Amino acid sequence: MKQATPTLTTDWQNESSSTVRSKKLSWQATTTRYMWYIALALIAFIVLCALVPQWIAPYSPVDMVADRILQAPNAINWLGTDYFGRDIFSLVVYGARDSLLIGFSSVVIGILVGVLLGTVAGYIGGILDTIVMRFIDILMTIPGVLLALAIAAALGPGLLNIIIAISVSAIPGYARVMRGQMVSLGSRGYVEASRSLGASGLRIVWKHILPNAVSPILVMGTLGLGTAILTGAGLSFLGLGVIHEIPDWGALLSQGRGYLTVAWWICTFPGLAITVFVLAINIIGDDLRDRLDPQSSYL
């Protein structure tokens, strides 16, 4: 009887610990799921603002009302007005278009060019692989934001120039990942079997390597979207962004910084829009990484 008591106690402790662990995992899964739904809803709303801002904004972003200059948030102007009497909510809604266009275009171009470079380097190999990857290594030694800033400063302000600048800063990461996938997947058994059956190199790349390399590229692109939007907002804040009568989020921040002490809402709400969208994108990206590329979540 004296020896049975510790065994029963140990079994009860193990069962209790297992129950606590399962409840904790269940709570984490539930919380993650709800956060994912909230993030997806926020992204959908902001994308809707970018696509059809006239359906959501109560006023035109270029309407100037002289008797409503620097009004705090109120029932008429939900997020207040700026120093021209323009409605801040309408400006934030219309500003989403250029901000998201910069982010999505930069990521798409970065993925296309980066995947092409990585595929060519990994497929051909040899001296071409060495040259391409050494050039990629040189670019990766420069912080992405600094590289984009240097390119944007050289090209000048403008929508196309800022997209080019951010795209170039994103290309090295995608190229390196794709080249690694080419080397890793190229030695798999099904690739060797296809090669032994006489399949051409291009067919092997198109049918076997590229489809299996989509997951890490997709995860990296989703997470990179938030970085691209942040970089675009930063360049616009510095005056290197889009020259347009309807400012994007970064330009709104720049225009309102001089009024921060007397009209805090001019900077606060565009900054909040950037924060919310980037945070939502990161939540979706983390979930995609856990689902599609679980090994990288431990790195």
From TrEMBL:
Alphabetical list of InterPro entries matching this protein: BP-dependent_transpt_permease, MetI-like, MetI-like_sf
Protein keywords: Cell membrane, Membrane, Transmembrane, Transmembrane helix, Transport
PANTHER family: OLIGOPEPTIDE TRANSPORT SYSTEM PERMEASE PROTEIN APPC, PEPTIDE ABC TRANSPORTER PERMEASE PROTEIN
Main localisation: membrane
Protein name: Dipeptide transport system permease protein DppC
Spans traversing the lipid bilayer: 34-56, 100-124, 217-243, 263-284
Membrane topology annotation: Multi-pass membrane protein
Residue stretches making up the ABC transmembrane type-1 domain: 96-285
Species assigned in the record: Paenibacillus nuruki
Family from the record: Belongs to the binding-protein-dependent transport system permease family.
Subcellular location: Cell membrane
Keyword Zinc-finger in annotation: no
Keyword Transmembrane helix belongs to the record: yes
GO cellular component, one term: plasma membrane
UniProt GO BP: transmembrane transport
